[in-house]
Specification:
single chain, 83% helix, mainly alpha
Length: 283
């Protein structure tokens, strides 16, 4: 059920991106621009009040607080965690052109109004909702190795969709590419989150603190790189550069031999133990 929970977590975030453009237009035409900001602020108050009333279920073991440095220490002994975190960051970086370059792409397409930038964004959000309908149980998904391969293939599919989107063959091609990118992003994100939790269940909160940094911390960097590359060169070049990390990590996961992966794991664990002993000898 972990993958299903992670999928719903992503859907709750991305469904807003799918519904927000249409709802904003409706509010603007019926009530005015000011009400868009007012209703948005009220929604925060509503959910903040809901959280104050929520009571978590009693657990047998008290949950450990999230510690970023503890997560870094764990990841230093398990290179797969770094790979999964890299894939999480690659999703954020790869789908950034839909958010940042969508308006420019719509402006440069003949006969396309600026409203299509909102349609592109809505398509990306709708794709994540559709991606949540993918099966999250079964023999293939209960095997961590297969789940990791599945995440890598969906990351590769995300890169291909972004490439089609940014080339702007037609507005409809870019629209459906954004929709497919949303599906691939959701599948990759849910799979990597589930695998990260399974890597170190007892320290899941610390590992997921790193996930939050990889997911949200790369967004401003990706947007800055996206805008600068598009301005200095062109939008196609910017989109191509931003999918390079996703393609690279996906190919590493798909084609790296199991023997080499096992050697890297042993090497990292030895390095982690030696660093621990050195730190203990010199407090």
């Amino acid at each position: 059920y972990t993958a299903a929970a992670m999928a719903m977590n992503s859907v709750s975030y991305n469904a807003g991106r799918a519904l927000a453009p249409a709802l904003c237009v409706l509010v603007i035409y019926s009530m005015g621009y000011g009400w868009v900001f007012a209703l948005n602020a009220m929604s925060f108050v509503l959910f903040a009040g809901t959280l104050t009333k929520a009571r978590p279920l009693a657990s047998r073991k008290p949950s450990r607080p999230a510690r970023v440095w503890e997560g870094v220490s764990i990841a230093s002994r398990q290179p797969r965690i770094w790979l999964l975190l890299g894939m999480v960051a690659a999703v954020t970086i790869a789908d950034d052109p839909v958010l940042v370059l969508g308006p420019g792409l719509a402006h440069h397409m003949p006969g396309t109004s600026s409203n299509w930038a909102g349609y592109f964004l809505a398509a990306l959000g709708c794709g994540t909702v559709l991606g949540s309908l993918a099966p999250t149980r079964g023999p293939a998904l209960s095997n961590p190795s297969r789940t990791s391969k599945r995440a890598a293939w969906s990351l590769l599919a995300l890169s291909f969709c972004i490439l089609i989107f940014i080339f702007g063959i037609s507005r409809w091609a870019s629209l459906f590419a954004a929709l497919a990118a949303g599906v691939a992003a959701l599948v990759t994100g849910a799979s990597t989150q589930a695998l990260l939790v399974q890597q170190k269940p007892g320290n899941a909160s610390s590992v997921m603190a790193l996930w939050a940094i990889a997911w949200a911390g790369t967004k401003p960097l990706a947007s800055l790189a996206d805008g600068w590359l598009a301005t200095a060169f062109n939008m196609r070049f910017a989109g191509f550069i931003l999918i390079v990390p996703a393609v690279s990590l996906a190919l590493i996961e798909i084609f790296l031999s199991e023997r080499l992966k096992s050697w890297l794991k042993k090497f990292a664990r030895k390095g982690g133990r030696s660093n621990f002993h050195r730190a203990s000898a010199h407090p």
